User: Which sequence fits this backbone?
């Protein structure tokens, strides 16, 4: 067994998939909480990036935390896992891009990742987001254990006979 | 001598004729045959000159007759009168009855024992069938034999007698006929009266029949018992001439009673048990205690059986009728109006009408039964139809459920097949769900924000190009305000600018701007990013305190592009 195949076995392991799902989902659920409660502050954080046009600011500040929450919940529960993983991955990619652009532009801005009261943006969030993006890709690519959806439909199929 | 004898003979003849004439005159007014015979006897005795004579008038058929005698012993006359039938038979045998007067003087005939003793001469003749006359004469007082003149005179006398008797008999016959005629007239009168009575009875019967017929025809189309009874009562009251009446009808199967009254002084509601009791009492007093179907019977002493306080009127006549075992009725009528009084003549009509009514009632009941059966049938049909509809509906539902089941199965199959797949549609759904939840939550969140504030229309402060702004600043006619947050201000700003971020406006404006600002100076505001229009917000707030406010068109980028200085 080569190293690559062993690595693939580890990466593709359903247990790992489950762990990654729960972790990533938990992170997103947690991240959404504060923003859901205080959309005005989140809007201010988005504004600081100077990437979103002013008319889209409030709708985005309202929509994004809920999108994060639902994606996180679906990930943890294992319902529509791949769609949720794709959503999470997409968001992480967008965040990474925004952080990168902001860092390049040198605009002084807080991260706004979890709450508005954070230190000015540095490279750490970018690295972290990319790492999480990798986890999302893992969830998307490989089946994981304890997916509610799969169990539900299997049991329905069995019940139907 | 011969002349004298001839004269004497002539005188005698004249005398005889005179006698005849007188006798005829005397006899004609007499009406009693006995009187006529008496008169004749006297005259004949005088003419014949005899002391004893007898005249008989006998009816040859009956053997009875009258007898008249002179000079006979009482027992002799009695004996002869007892022998009348034998005399008649002996002297007037059938087939040899003398139509003209005949003399009999033969001694053997005269001494037959039936005639009075000493009879010398017998004259006999049928007077007028069946009557016959006999006259006997005894010996002459002078002892001489009767000569031809005497005989002729006697015959003539007998003829007169016969005429008188005939006349008398004819008279009697006329009288007799008159009497018969009178008798016949009387019997005719009686017959006429009887005929009149019969006619009246016939009239009444015709009237009764017509009443019954009209009632029957008029009511034959009535199929409701109630209306039928109404018509019945009306007809009966009209036909009998009664001012008050009522009909009770007891249905024993349904335990129901119908009561109809007219002209009642006080009405009452009839319960079934009440009606049953009175009907029972009626049957106790019925003239004929029968319970045959379609029979009726009058009630004796209806006034006592059905008291006025119960019926609402004085009951003068009551008729019980039995339609069938289950349907019994009572017709009660008040006293008749007018002079008639008794119901005797109307009873037949009442019974006839009642019979007709019973038949109609039976028909009505049959019709009602049929209707009830029809109704049952209809209800059963309805039930059936409803059941069929329900079944159809159930079938339809089953079909729908089958379809749903199939679809569900297909959906499950699809879902199972696609459970592990990624679909863009899921992402879209996720987005829509998030949007819905976000909007709903924002609407109820105390920290909620306006979703479309950027599109709200409000008046923007006037703009000013960079050169003019620069010139005004250089001439000291303007004050410059940087509206951005402090970190952006520090990252780079126009040298003269005062940083007044919107959140700190109320603190900074009076401290830094309010002191230096002169009324004629223009406040120039700049500072916006793609995400925020800080200048707009601050300028509008400055406008609340100062009149001359302008936005710098293009902001700090246009300023820099013109080559004007920027710090740092």
Assistant:
């Amino acid at each position: 067994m080569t190293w690559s195949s062993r690595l693939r076995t580890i990466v593709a392991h359903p247990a790992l998939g489950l762990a990654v799902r729960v972790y990533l989902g938990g992170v997103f659920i947690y991240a959404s909480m504060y923003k859901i409660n205080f959309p005005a502050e989140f809007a201010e954080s988005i504004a600081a990036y100077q990437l979103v046009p002013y008319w889209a600011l409030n709708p985005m500040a309202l929509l994004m935390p809920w999108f994060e929450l639902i994606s996180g919940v679906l990930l943890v529960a294992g319902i529509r896992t791949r769609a949720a993983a794709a959503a999470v991955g997409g968001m992480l990619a967008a965040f990474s891009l925004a952080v990168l652009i902001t860092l390049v532009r040198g605009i002084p801005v807080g991260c706004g990742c979890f709450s508005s009261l954070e230190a000015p943006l540095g490279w750490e969030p970018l690295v972290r987001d990319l790492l999480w993006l990798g986890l999302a890709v893992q969830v998307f690519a490989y089946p994981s254990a304890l997916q509610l959806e799969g169990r539900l439909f299997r049991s329905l199929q069995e019940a139907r006979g | 001598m011969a002349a004298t004898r001839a004269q004497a003979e002539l005188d005698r003849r004249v005398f005889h004729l005179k006698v005849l004439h007188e006798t005829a005159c005397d006899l004609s007014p007499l009406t009693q045959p006995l009187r006529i015979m008496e008169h004749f006897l006297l005259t004949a005795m005088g003419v014949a000159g005899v002391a004893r004579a007898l005249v008989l008038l006998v009816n040859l058929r009956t053997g009875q007759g009258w007898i008249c005698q002179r000079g006979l012993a009482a027992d002799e006359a009695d004996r002869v009168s007892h022998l009348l039938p034998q005399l008649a038979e002996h002297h007037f045998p059938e087939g040899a009855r003398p139509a003209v007067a005949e003399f009999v003087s033969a001694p053997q005939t005269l001494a037959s024992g039936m005639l009075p003793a000493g009879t010398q001469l017998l004259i006999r003749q049928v007077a007028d069938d069946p009557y016959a006359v006999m006259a006997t004469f005894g010996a002459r007082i002078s002892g001489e034999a009767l000569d031809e003149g005497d005989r002729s005179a006697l015959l003539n006398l007998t003829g007169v007698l016969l005429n008188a008797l005939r006349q008398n008999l004819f008279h009697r016959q006329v009288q007799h006929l008159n009497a018969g005629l009178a008798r016949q007239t009387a019997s005719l009168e009686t017959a006429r009266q009887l005929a009149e009575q019969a006619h009246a009875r016939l009239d009444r019967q015709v009237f009764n029949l017509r009443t019954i017929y009209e009632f029957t025809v008029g009511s034959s189309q009535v199929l409701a018992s109630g209306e039928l009874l109404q018509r019945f009562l009306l007809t009966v009251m009209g036909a009998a001439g009664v001012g008050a009446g009522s009909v009770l009808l007891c249905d024993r199967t349904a335990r129901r009673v119908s009561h109809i009254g007219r002209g009642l002084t006080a009405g009452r509601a009839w319960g079934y048990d009440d009606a049953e009791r009175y009907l029972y009492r009626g049957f106790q007093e019925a003239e004929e205690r029968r319970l045959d179907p379609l029979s009726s019977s009058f009630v004796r002493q209806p006034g006592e059986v059905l008291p006025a306080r119960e019926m609402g009127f004085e009951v003068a006549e009551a008729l019980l009728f039995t339609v069938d075992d289950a349907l019994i009725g009572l017709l009660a009528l008040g006293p008749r109006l007018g002079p008639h009084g008794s119901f005797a003549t109307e009873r037949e009509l009442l019974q006839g009408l009642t019979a007709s009514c019973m038949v109609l009632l039976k028909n009505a009941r049959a019709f009602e039964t049929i209707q009830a059966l029809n109704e049952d049938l209809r209800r059963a049909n309805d039930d059936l139809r409803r059941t069929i509809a329900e079944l159809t509906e159930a079938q339809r539902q089953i079909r729908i459920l089958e379809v749903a089941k199939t679809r569900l199965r297909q959906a499950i199959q699809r879902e199972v097949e696609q459970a592990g797949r990624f679909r863009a549609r899921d992402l879209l759904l996720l987005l829509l769900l998030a949007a819905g939840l976000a909007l709903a939550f924002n609407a109820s969140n105390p920290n909620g924000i306006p979703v479309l504030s950027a599109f709200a229309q409000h008046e923007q402060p006037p703009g000013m190009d960079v050169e003019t702004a620069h010139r005004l600043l250089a001439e000291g006619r303007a004050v410059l305000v940087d509206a951005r947050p402090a970190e952006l201000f520090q990252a780079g700003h126009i040298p003269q600018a005062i940083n007044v971020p919107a959140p700190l406006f109320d603190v900074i404006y009076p401290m830094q701007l309010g002191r230096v600002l002169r009324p004629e100076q223009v406040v120039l505001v700049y500072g916006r990013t793609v995400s925020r229009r800080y200048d707009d917000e601050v300028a509008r707030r400055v406008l609340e305190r100062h009149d001359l406010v302008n936005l710098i068109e293009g902001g700090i980028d246009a300023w820099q592009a013109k080559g004007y200085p920027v710090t740092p």
